[in-house]
Input
Amino acid sequence: MSSFLKQDPAPVPGGPFGPELRLWDEDWVVVGVDEAGRGPLAGPVVAGAVAFEPDVQIDGIGDSKLLKPEQRNGLERLIQAQATAWAVAEVDHAVIDRINILQATRLAMETAVRQVVEVLGPERILLLVDGTIPPIGIGRQVNVVKGDRVSFSIGAASILAKEHRDRIMIDYDKQYTGYGFARHKGYCTAAHIEALRTLGPCAIHRRSFQVKALLDNS
Output
């Protein structure tokens, strides 16, 4: 994982924060990248990628998991309206099972980043990526642990990814009734485990060791 050795400039209230402040001063084109859905038992993994101009003003961006749904929804609209470029991409449960969740996450991120770079152009691209993701292969990549809490751009990408994935799971709830996807979004809650043991897996469940172990222990 790459790290930042210099202290990042102080943010302006309501504006961007994190390593991108210094990186913009160094003339990098910063793209924040994050995912939603690595941990669930069902559904896709979704990646968001987003780039801003340094003078963007959006208050409240941070870790999407710590925001209320109505906050995320409002911020999603602001991000989409003010971003220089943004994209979301998903990789479904079947691909996750075939190539594993880490590689599926990297693939979703690569797809989203490529869409953003088509708008920005390829010069001096620097990816700020949440977590410890293998190289995406576009521009320079800096992995930032808990990046959605310390980087404005990663936090914005986190919101885009989570809002997009939540809508997918709400739609799946109508198609696969009884599992409660609209509530838990496919994560491993007590209600989801009970539904799995009662109904068995549906078409969008990941045929992972975790799902098999839950059913084997029922």
